[in-house]
Fold each of these.
Amino acid sequence: MAEVSTVGPSEPPSLDGMDEETAVATMAEWFSHNFEDPSQEMPYDGREGGFQYIHGGPYDASEEIYAAFSDADETWIEQAVDEVQSDGMTDWAPAGWRTGQFEDDYYPDDEPPRLADRLDGLGAQLAQIEQHIAYWRNRPAGLGHNRAPDEFRLSPDDADLTEAQESVEEVRRELAKPDRETAADPVVVERAEGRFSRLAKKIATAIAAAGGALVMGVIGGAGKHIGEELAKDPSSFFLVLEHAAATLHTWGSSLTSLF
């Protein structure tokens, strides 16, 4: 993993003249720009206690927002904290743009590909995610060589699996748009990013709880179809979710910057 420096958070905007709703949204947006779910880019090692915060952290949303907006109304700050933690995330890593982590880890030898190229590859990632979901939703209930190992389980009716499948279908429709880089629905893209990241974190947490270790690395192959052995491998499932979420994050950021 490349050695990179972590830069500090961006300058917090002034809240002068803002009403409560706007101020809360502004604080939440500032935090989301500067901090992110550690499953986006931090290495994970179950034997070492989980995510490895190699660039600082874990950070606490309450502490960071209070420090950045010390003159703001305390109840507004609490609302902003509640908003950024609405998905249950309480431990945060610095955003990738602050570390250079995304470029160094995903593309160690070359320049990061253009968004258009990454979107071209997203379809295959969605197909792999769908196959993983299908395995876990339809796996045999009895004992046998096809049964998932005892170290890891996902219930067939798991809500996160259901939502991830919904997002696979929604994102495919956005990818099919001829002007997808500028006309895709940012709500759909950002929702899919959140769902994939949340499911990836659940998988990593489950493996750690079982005393296992998540095998980190690059997804093998670029094809759309994977065999059953790979489909039932939780580490492979984690990795493709993580890679797809990273592309969705870049896509969503590009779309919202247009408004």
Note: The first helix runs from residue 20 to 34.
Amino acid sequence: MYGKCTRYRVKGIPGVKDRSFDVLQDAKTWLAQAQTDARRGEFVDPRDGAISLKDYIATHWWPTQSGDPSTIERIEQRVRRHIVPHLGAQPLNAIGTEVLRHWKKRLEKDLGPTSIRLVWATLSSVLQAAVEDHRLGRNPCRSSTVGPPPAAPGRVEAWPPERVLAVREALPDRYRILLVIGAGLGLRQGEALGLSADDIDFEKEVVHVRRQIKMVRAKWSSSRRSRSRCPGTTRLRPRRRWKPSTDGRGPTASW
């Protein structure tokens, strides 16, 4: 420590930035704690956590995100709509349990439990990255005293075959196959839209899910998949007959 007038400067700790204090005892206390944390590899300089959440996301967190385009779009929407408007101006090290409790109460006015859990998980991912970047000592989203609402209880019940067949009969011929492969194979919407006649092995009665179609930023996007499904009931198996559509938009399944 070096003293000059009423300022005291702490320096010389490997991996720790120099810091000045007005009170000698404050400098000694900080020095002891910094040395202990540095030996443990847990030292976090408060000045590194002074960056605002908005700036940390824009400069350090968001540029490193990658993955499925539709997933990235949903994450971006959560950050833009529910995180940055309410917490963006807060310094990272000012986001504690009290701040999170107020934020959670605000979210409950507009979102249901499932959506809040997703937004909470996104913020937790941001703050955990800040912990690993040595800007925070801990992630407040993992506190034992505040957290997202519990998952809503509920059980999804499949339509009975009678209802499936009734809805199928009410649909135009062109769209009946979407209902059948959704109910009979359990395909997601994007997988059903991406299915081609070439993906169906009629001899082995196996459907190969090779791609899915999604809407990303108002544009259709295709991504590859790799899994196979077997029809679950003979009543819903399409017969191996196809006929041209009358509107010139491709083949239509014949039932």
Note: Confidence is low (pLDDT under 50) at residues 232-236, 238-246, 250-255.
